[in-house]
Design brief:
15 helices; Rossmann fold; alpha/beta; about 400 residues; about 45% helix; 12 strands
Length: about 400
């Protein structure tokens, strides 16, 4: 089967789709991954065919800048959606070319390619990384609860479905009239999240399937830097700080980085730091911290004691899979949701609100995560369960079933 995956979005978004693509390719399918030209090397490092789509832009950096400069969550979400829609509009001719020869299109959670499959009349499967987008009618709800459900659905449709309908109009397609539900595949909608954090909702329709996280191994020719291996061997235990887009070269990024450095100093920990590439030359890192670039979380996190991350989808998955506690510094979009769920399942302290985020408070959270035997036992148990879910294998099986 010839399968196309038009992955318009951020670098961290792409990791999950590469894992799925590798799994489909190993099952004997011909998979082509489309993404922004700057992603070519990453895709090809997994021996996957690459198709460039759209201009050579770093959507992740654009979205980070939007979140940092927007005054509220709603303003940030609207601006980020506009940026993604613009990227999809620019990429549309290339996405059409990518999908034209495919027998199946995997439409990612950004809905890139959703309009094009209608133009080409192609079978498609969708992916959802926010289960809140999946309609769920609860027959046990009373009148007031049903009214609240309708209000919630209307808000989601306004935030998600309407921008895509504006894109469809520009492509001379009729608008979809079922809200977000009409964007999702009626054949199969994959939810690549662990059922530990998102149990399947009994009120979902049958095509919505929670399959578990999609784990991506290291690139075929990748090996860890020697200085990292020496640091890990010489200092035990070592922790990881992986905050990604929080650390942009800006006054706020520098302020947050310095807060983290001071908190780590107060907690007395050794740490490997990722995501600070833009501000390395402006920071005075102590000898207890090693800055690295390009080290896969799936390699690093099983080798450390605890991880401090930003609550992003990929970081949450990698930390859970590694079976280690987390301290989460959520920013906007969905990261506060994942931060709270990690706390709810007992593998992280309660997240610290941004307005109460001080070196003292962060150091206390780090010490709690390091010293809590209960938290470590819980993380180890859940990590084993997450690894057993085999999300890629289950997704490949479901795709083959619906296309047989």
């Amino acid at each position: 089967m010839r399968i196309a995956i038009p992955a318009v979005g951020t670098k961290s978004d792409l990791f999950s789709y590469l894992a799925l693509a590798v799994g489909l390719q190993r099952a004997g399918h011909r998979v082509v991954v489309g993404s922004h030209p700057l992603m070519a090397e990453m895709v090809q490092s997994y021996d996957l065919p690459f198709h460039p789509i759209g201009p050579n832009v770093d959507v992740g950096r654009d979205l980070t800048r939007i979140r940092e400069t927007s005054g509220s969550w709603l303003a940030a979400h609207l601006a980020a959606t506009r940026r993604l829609i613009t990227a999809m509009e620019q990429a549309s001719p290339d996405v059409l070319e990518l999908c034209r020869q495919a027998d199946l299109v995997i439409v990612p959670h950004t809905f890139a390619g959703r309009a094009e499959v209608d133009i080409l009349n192609k079978p498609f499967v969708t992916v959802t990384m926010q289960e809140q987008l999946i309609p769920a009618f609860n027959p046990e709800h009373g009148e007031l609860e049903r009214f609240a459900d309708r209000l919630g659905a209307a808000a989601i449709n306004r935030l998600v479905a309407e921008p895509h309908n504006r894109l469809r109009r520009k492509l001379n397609l009729p608008p979809l009239k079922g809200g977000v539900d009409s964007l999702l595949s009626a054949r199969l909608n994959l939810v690549p999240i662990s059922s530990i954090l998102v149990p399947p909702n009994p009120n979902w329709e049958s095509q919505h399937r929670v399959v578990g996280y999609w784990q991506l191994a290291e690139p075929f020719e990748w090996s860890p830097p020697s200085e990292l291996q020496v640091f890990l061997l010489a200092n035990d235990p070592v922790n990881a700080i992986s905050l990604g887009p929080l650390f942009k070269n800006s006054p706020q990024g520098l302020k947050t980085a310095r807060l983290v450095i001071e908190a780590a100093r107060q907690a007395g920990v050794f740490a490997v730091v990722q995501g600070w590439e833009d501000i390395f030359d402006q920071l005075d890192l102590p000898e207890t911290m090693l800055a690295v670039t390009g080290v896969p979380n799936n390699w690093l996190l099983p080798r450390v004691r605890m991880v401090l991350h930003n609550g992003g989808f990929g970081s949450t998955a990698a930390g859970l899979r590694a079976g280690i506690p987390a301290v989460v510094m959520p920013h906007r979009t969905d990261s506060p949701v994942w931060a709270q769920r990690l706390a709810d399942v007992g593998v992280a302290p309660d997240p610290i609100p941004a307005n109460r985020r001080t070196p003292d408070a962060l150091a206390e959270a780090i010490i709690t995560a390091l010293r809590s035997g209960e938290m470590h036992q819980r993380a180890a148990l859940l990590g084993e369960q997450v690894r057993l879910e085999a999300g890629v294998r289950r997704a490949v099986q479901l795709i083959e079933e619906v296309m047989s």
